[in-house]
Design a protein that fits this description.
The complex is a heterodimer of chains A (112) and B (141).
Chain A: E1 2-8, E2 11-20, H1 22-36, E3 43-53, H2 55-69, E4 75-78, H3 82-90, E5 98-100, H4 103-111
Parallel strand pairs in A: 2-3, 3-4, 4-5
Antiparallel strand pairs in A: 1-2
Chain B: H1 2-8, H2 11-17, H3 22-43, E1 52-59, E2 62-69, H4 96-104, E3 107-113, E4 130-138
Antiparallel strand pairs in B: 1-2, 2-4, 3-4
The chains are: A alpha/beta (112), B alpha+beta (141).
Chain lengths: 112, 141
């Protein structure tokens, strides 16, 4: 699991690449949280290069989004492929974490 | 977690050979990941030599996964589902994996089989009590 971090107009963008399974989630867990939460600014997570999502990946997203919400900021996901989206919907992650259809929509959601 | 990756690399060739579609293939992979990683994290004692065997086979309109392990007794079928998400602040973090398996599977069946002691008919072999879990995934959707 690879991770690229950038800033778009005071929104933290994290682009993930690879499998967000138990190994992938463990691999990036500390850095993922560290690049998003301490900054205390809105964040978007690009899932377009994520090929696989399992429960530990879902858990990482929830815990990070929750921690960011504690600083009064939102996190949004976008770019999920159909199989990743099925996991997002089956776990009901989309009911508690913002899910957008594009980067622009995600930025709008987290800045609102 | 090497065990999870070791097993998972056998799945794509199986999917291709049996012409399993992308959606069903992903569900099978997720179920494999969740059950095996759960057993490794919670069902096995460190340095115990405990093992899990997994068989994946194509059935009419379904894929069947059969998991057998000699770890601690664990019946995922009877495991209570986590509380539904009410909010981001209160969403439970535990139990998501087994609940995900139940929602993706067409069916799940579990039994705990008793062990067998050493016997003259099978010298040098003893069988520990084991968990047997059979999960099917529909290939229709």
């Amino acid at each position: 699991m690879e991770m690229q971090v950038s800033d778009i107009d005071q929104v933290t963008k994290v682009a993930l690449s690879g499998r967000l399974d138990s190994a992938g989630a463990s691999q990036i867990e500390m850095r993922f949280t560290a690049v998003i939460v301490p900054k205390g600014q809105p964040a978007i997570v690009d899932l377009s290069e994520v090929s696989f999502l399992a429960s530990l990946g879902v858990r990482l997203i929830i815990s990070t989004a929750r921690a960011l919400l504690g600083k009064g900021r939102k996190l949004a996901l976008y770019g999920a492929n159909p199989t990743v989206m099925e996991i997002i919907e089956t776990t009901a992650l989309h009911e508690i974490v913002l899910v957008a259809g594009s980067e622009g929509e995600a930025i709008g959601m987290v800045k609102a | 977690m090497d065990a999870v990756e070791d097993g998972q690399r056998h799945l794509p060739p199986f999917f291709e050979r049996c012409n399993i579609g992308a959606a069903a293939s992903n569900r099978v992979e997720v179920i494999f990941e969740e059950i095996v990683s759960n057993a490794v994290r919670h069902g096995f004692e460190a340095n115990s030599g405990q093992t899990m065997h997994v068989w994946v086979s194509a059935r009419p309109q379904a894929v069947e996964l059969r998991f057998e392990d000699d770890g601690v007794p664990f019946n995922p079928v009877e495991r209570a589902a986590p509380s539904p998400f009410q909010s981001l602040e209160t969403a439970p973090l535990g139990g998501l994996g087994i609940d995900l398996v139940k929602k993706l599977a067409a069916s799940m069946r579990y039994e705990r089989l008793p062990g067998a002691p050493y016997s003259a008919s099978a010298p040098g072999q003893a069988f520990a009590p084991s968990n047997h879990l059979i999960v099917t995934v529909s290939t229709l959707r």
